[in-house]
């Protein structure tokens, strides 16, 4: 009896181990869900191609993004240009700061602010007919009276005003780093009439992946 009691004291019954509670598991699950949601949302975003180009740019330490330009990219850029022209005219009619809007449009759509060379030959320009300088381009759109460095002949193409602009591309040439579109665009005036103009636009991607105009040539149709 004494031996049995001694053994019981030396080898007490083992208590069942309590499994540790993993308090981090719910947090990890939430983080995974948030990550998957963010990835899915980014992939579905209209800006996903631009963000992808920016990631390429950062990985390459400043090398120019190589994301190809699509026909949809060109259509979006042309729509933005037309909307910008209409908006400048709308603000002018409402006696607002149309010059500030023009500065924004040129900055968003043309290559000057991205340190890119731009060839600009607008429709209603004679002296100079070809504008290589940003200030001369701004003068063309807003008129000499509102320009910082006015060109005397400029009446302000964008403050006509126009109520709509539509593009009709005849052909778009896609190269490795550019897209060049040629066709006719139509400007609708306040009276509803349309003015047809012939154009050539070339687009390139800036360092941030956005599409910029680097060639803009417009002319009125030749009358035989």
Summarize the model shown:
InterPro entries: NTF2-like_dom_sf. The chain is of the alpha+beta class. It is built from six helices and five strands.
Structure description:
This is Phosphoribosyl-AMP cyclohydrolase. It comes from Pelagomonas calceolata. By secondary structure, the chain is of the alpha+beta class. It has a domain of 149 residues: Nuclear Transport Factor 2, Chain: A, CATH 3.10.450.50. Strands 1-5-4-3-2 form a 5-stranded mixed β-sheet, covered by helices on one side. Helix 4 runs antiparallel to helix 5. It is globular. It starts with a helix and ends in a 5-residue tail after the last strand. About 6% of the residues have low confidence.
Distinctive features:
224 residues, alpha+beta, Nuclear Transport Factor 2, Chain: A, 5-stranded mixed β-sheet, 6 helices
Low-confidence stretches: 34-47
The oligomeric state of the chains shown is: single chain
User: Any guess at the CATH architecture of the domain at 71-219?
Assistant: Roll
Shape: globular
H-E order: HHHHHEHEEEE
Number of helices: 6
Output the structural class.
alpha+beta
Within the CATH hierarchy, at the fold level, what is the topology of the domain at 71-219?
A: Nuclear Transport Factor 2, Chain: A
What is the rounded distance between the termini? 129 Å
Radius of gyration: 31 Å
In the CATH scheme, the class of the domain at 71-219 would be: Alpha Beta
Mean pLDDT: 83
In which range does the helix fraction lie? 25-40%
Strand content: 15-25%
* Major sheet size, sense and barrel closure: 5 strands, mixed
Protein name: Phosphoribosyl-AMP cyclohydrolase
Region (Disordered): 1-22
Organism: Pelagomonas calceolata
Biased composition (Basic residues): 1-17
């Amino acid at each position: 009896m004494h031996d049995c009691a001694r053994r019981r004291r030396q080898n007490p019954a083992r208590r069942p181990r309590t499994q540790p509670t993993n308090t981090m598991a719910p947090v990890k699950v939430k983080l995974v869900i948030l990550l998957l949601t963010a990835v899915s949302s980014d992939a579905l975003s209209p800006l996903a191609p631009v963000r992808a180009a920016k990631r390429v740019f950062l990985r390459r330490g400043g090398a120019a993004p190589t994301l190809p330009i699509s026909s949809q990219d060109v259509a979006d850029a042309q729509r933005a240009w037309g909307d910008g022209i209409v908006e400048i005219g709308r603000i002018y009619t409402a006696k607002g700061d149309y010059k500030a809007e023009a500065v924004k449009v040129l900055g968003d759509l043309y290559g000057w602010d991205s340190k890119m060379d731009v060839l600009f030959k607008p429709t209603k320009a004679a002296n100079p007919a070809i504008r290589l300088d940003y200030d001369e381009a701004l003068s063309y759109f807003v008129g000499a009276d509102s320009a910082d460095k006015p060109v005397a002949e400029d009446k302000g193409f964008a403050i006509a005003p126009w109520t709509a602009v539509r593009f009709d591309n005849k052909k778009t040439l896609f190269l490795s780093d550019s897209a060049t579109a040629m066709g006719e665009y139509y400007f609708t005036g306040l009276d509803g009439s349309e003015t047809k103009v012939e154009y050539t636009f070339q687009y390139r991607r800036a360092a941030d992946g956005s599409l910029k105009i680097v060639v803009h040539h417009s002319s009125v149709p030749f009358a035989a």
